[in-house]
Each structure stands twice: as structure tokens, then as C-alpha cells.
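Quick one: co-fold with calcium ion.
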Amino acid sequence: MSGTKRGTGVRRMRLRAVLALACAAFAVPALAAPTAQAQSEVEFGLLFAQLLVLPQDTTPPAITIATPTDGATYARGEVVNADYSCSDAGVAFMIALAGGSALDEFLALLADHGTNLGHPTCAGPVPAGSPITASPGPHTFTVTASDLAYTVADTDGDGVGDRLVSSPNASAATVRYTVPYPFTGFKAPVANPSEVNPVNPLKAGQAVPIKFSLGGDRGLRILTPPAPTSRPIDCTSGLADDPLLPAFPAGNSGLQYDAASDTYTWVWKTDAAWKDTCRTLTVALDDDTTHEALFAFK
Ligand SMILES: [Ca+2]
Ligand SMILES: [Ca+2]
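Sure, here it is.
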């Protein structure tokens, strides 16, 4: 930072300081100092004196996340630019005190005098205006912010505060969005609606392998609890009156993924008591999609 630039900012600060001092219990020193350096020091003293006695900022920054929208589903390949911002009355006051755009200069001046308040922050996974991650699956988007709050310390024990100690308030906000997996239907032996999968009556109670691809390995935590689920439906109308209840797996295998065939497999244990009834088997995924297959137990 050049001395010239700082001098300009300090002059801006001086105007603000004089205005702000109207409410501060300080005698206003004469600002017509004989040299620029001396004038700067007087002005700095005024500003610093204000900071020592002003009410302290105890409110964390407010964070607004417009995009991604909480709960949104975005299409694969869709370019979505992040839109978020942070606001803080304490930071706004400091900006006004510093003369608008001169906040960095003001903070640098404070640091030069042994008071490092850092900088206010407002940061997300990508900068505001940049594209968000659009890979298939669920995503969280967290923005964190901090302000310029400080406490006043009495370093010489005279009972009067004389030093500003950085003590920023922090806040965070999170939204969740999803991008659907490229699910293309259940794989054989299960057919997709509107086809109904017959289950051999002699084998009622048999295990039915539920197989599908999500276009790659998405991990083994892709099922939204209590998925998979099942419920009876009317064999003629296809209508359901009962709630979806957890379906049971055959054995203890759980969900498995085979990379060679890019196939997820979950084996459903059917019940011999379901003879002459029809049911759905529903798979809810963590990309907020659900997929259903129909079965007739003859
Ligand atoms: Ca604040
Ligand atoms: Ca003191």
C-alpha cells in the first residue's frame, strides 16, 4: 500500500470520523495538523477512541443463499451458478467508518497500530457467481461467514480499555440439493412398469434380485431409509391403500455394487403368505427419486 493511497483513505475516514464523533463522548482535537503524518495520527486516534467505547458487535453475520435453492433438484449437465451473500451490521458500520471502499485500508491501518481485526469473511464451496457441483447424487452447500467483532482489553491495568482484541462472531448456513442419478430402470430379471412381474406360486417366499445401475459407483449409502419398501396393491386397479413398509432382504447381504457390470443388487425376500396378491417394491434413492416395480404372486 502506498503512502499516497493511505493518505487519501485517511482523509475520507476523517470526514466519517467527525460525523460519527457527534455521538461519542470525546473532545474533538483540532484536525488542522501541521503535517500529513501528524494529521493521520490524530485521525487514527479519534477512530481508535471510538472503537474503544462503541457498543460491541455480538450478532453473527446473516447469510442468504439464493442458489442453490434448498431442496432443489437440478438436471444433469445443468449449469447452476451459486448466488449467496452475507450481511452484518457491525461490518457495515466499519465500512462506513472507513469511508466506504477503504475498509481494507482501514484494517491495515489498525494492524499497523497493533490491532489485527482480520477481515470479514463470506465463503461457500465455490465463489458466488461460479457454477456449483453438478455431479449426480445429493449435495450440501454450506456458506460460512465471520464479522469484525472485537473485545476491549485493559492491558495496563488502569481500569480503562486500551486495546482491541479480535473476537469475530461466526455463522454458517447450509442448503441441500440433488442431481438425479442416471437411473434407467430395473435390470433383469425384474421388468419395469407397466409390466407386472409374476412370482411363481410354488416359489412364493423366493428371493427376487432387484438390480439397477446409477451410471457408476455411487457408494453403498444411496438408499433413503427405510428403503426399499413394499405394499400390497389391487391386482386389477393397481391402487394401494396400505402404507409403504420396509421390505426385507434375503439373508444379510444388503446392498451390493458390482463395478464390472456397474450394477447395484439388493435381494428381496418375498413371503409365501402373499400368494394370490399383488405388491409394489419401491426403491427410494438419496437423489430424491423413487423407483417402483410391480409383482403378482400367483
Ligand atoms: Ca456482527
Ligand atoms: Ca488500560
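If it helps, Residues 57, 59, 61, 88, 90, 147, 149, 169 surround calcium ion (ligand 1) (CB under 6 Å).
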